[in-house]
Amino acid sequence: MGKKMKIGMILDSTYPPDPRVRSEALTLLAAGHEVSLFCIDHDNREKEEILEGISVYRNYFNRNLYKKVFALAYSIPAYQLLLRPLIKRFLIDHDFDVVHIHDMIIAGIGLPMARNLGKKVVLDLHEDRPSIMKLYTHVNSGIGRYLISIKKWQRMQCKLVKNADQVIVVTDEARQVLIEECEIKASKVHWVPNTLNLSNFRNYPRDNTIIEKYKDKYVILYLGNTGIRRGTDTLIEAVSKLKGKIENLLLVLVGSSRDDKYLKQLAKDSGVDEFVNFCGWKDESLFTSYLEAANVCVSPLKKNRHHDTTYANKLFQYMSEAKPVIVSNCDAQANVVIECGCGLIHEPGSVDSLALKILEIYNDPILSREMGLRGKAAVENKYNWEYSKEQLLEIYT
Q1: For residue 296, which phi and psi values (nearest 5 degrees)?
Q2: Which CATH fold topology does 6-192 show?
Q3: CATH code 3.40.50.2000 region(s) in the chain
Q4: In what order do the strands lie in the sheet with 189-191?
Q5: What CATH superfamily classification does 198-381 receive?
Q6: In this model, does residue 139 exceed pLDDT 60?
Q7: CA gyration radius for the chain?
């Protein structure tokens, strides 16, 4: 694309706090481009403001109504009818050189509209939306079973990919799937992973109260959303296999989800509630403190195509602090661990497999340290935003 450009980003959620959008926008600003962002707002915040150089344009949308029409975006026209005039005004008022659309839901409106205005379009797929929708309760129950067609979403994703000038995905695994399924040129699809801004992450001050709290424990740490599709139930049940085998054992879960009530009951039923610490949601600024207290870190995702083609951000957070990792055999995260030699891989959903891998790390502190150091080196040399952003900038040069 070459020259310095006016870039209009379109996001189907609130801003801030989306870290991927922020990283990309700031990178493009630093390269000399002008960036404006259309986003949704549920809280009547400032309608227009400049944040870190990004011109943010918020459009109020009732939270409950948005949730209802969001999932039905390709089933009934309510979502399009509500957002189309807002996006049209955003595009016409600013006369962008490039329209950069985040995720496929809002792309169904923004992409054809940008095309009609003669604009180049970059489609940024944060995830394989049709695949993750298969896991949602509202898609598999009630009226959602009849109104929401996953096959229609899959067809629409390929249609959007074919109509965009350039496409961004978050893993090489996702890139390969998209090229094959949508029958598009490999040169059109770019891999820009959600890696860490190391200087920001490591500069968070350490909270000594957290570090002191766990100093006498052997801490198995899990960071992030605690939904059971991420394998948290497998992890809790694995603790029941490890009590009595690991001295001062403690599983620390830093995060929350609607499944927490079930998980707490599972811990009680499994006889391990005294070995599990549910910390609830914590700000990212505290993650490095929990990581300093950890002995081993886990990402036990359940196996499905969504998890095969995305990275859990926690993986790079774990690695950055030189912690050995144990991950399930979901393609994207397993491939990183194999490549870097920074941990062990267990069978997805297998309590015995996960428990054995944790025990292997516990029984070999030398191996544990070596794995942690290899992971830290991999994050410093490759899996960081300074490296990832070059792939984004290639699209705009």
Answers
A1: -150, 145
A2: Rossmann fold (3.40.50)
A3: 6-192, 198-381
A4: 48-51, 54-60, 34-41, 6-11, 98-102, 120-124, 166-169, 189-191
A5: Glycogen Phosphorylase B; (3.40.50.2000)
A6: no
A7: 22
List of residues 6+ apart from 87 with CB closer than 8 A: 10, 38, 106, 109, 110, 113
Using the CB atoms, write b or e for 184-216: b if 16+ within 10 Å: beeebbbbbbbbbbbeebeeeeebeebeebbee
DSSP 158: H
Q: Considering all CA atoms of the chain, what is the largest pairwise distance in Å, rounded to the nearest integer?
A: 67
pLDDT tens readout for residues 146-189:
456 667 778 889 999 999 999 999 999 999 999 999 999 999 99
Whether 200 and 175 have beta carbons less than 8 Å apart is answered as no
13: its two tokens: 């959620």
Which of 282, 303, 304 is closest to 293 using CA atoms?
282
Give which of 391, 394, 30 is closest to 195, Cα–Cα.
Answer: 391
* Helix (H) or strand (E) segment spanning residue 36: strand 34-41
With CA atoms as reference, report the closest residue to 222 among 257, 270, 262.
257
Listed residue (125, 138, 124, 12) closest to 66, CA to CA: 12
Q: Is 249 left (phi over 0), alpha (psi -120 to 50) or beta?
A: beta
Both structure tokens of 240: 């029941």
Does residue 291 contact residue 321 with C-beta atoms inside 8 Å? yes
